[in-house]
Amino acid sequence: MSRKKQAAALDFEIRFYEGILRRSPGFIEALSALGDLYTRTGLHEQGLRLDERLYQLRPNDPIVLYNLACSYSLVNDRDKAFRAIKQAIHCGYDDFDHLARDSDLHNLLNDRRFARYFERLKSRKPVKAGS
After folding, report:
1. What's the pLDDT tens digit per position in 49-62?
2. Can you give the pTM of this predicted structure?
């Protein structure tokens, strides 16, 4: 698919989910999908606003918290990104391999406080049986 067709498809999806949310503002799946689309198209502030709405609806969901940390990192708010990722981990997020490679967390991954925290966290992670 050409870049122009990809951009048109993404724009169509964004308009589609925005329309759903006008009618059903608390529709979790639509909020999540639209937040992802905003982030993928570089609309980081809009993605952050949706992730904050999702957090209000699901404050203990580790994936919601992880995505919130990503959004804060993308807008270069390291303090909030650090708090959100710590909360995500506390609530059960444990895909540390993905976390270490996620380009959305680039700003956070380059933060010394987070690097120390992450190293301590990885050193405490239990080894699974059979590994």
Report:
1. 999 999 999 999 99
2. 0.88
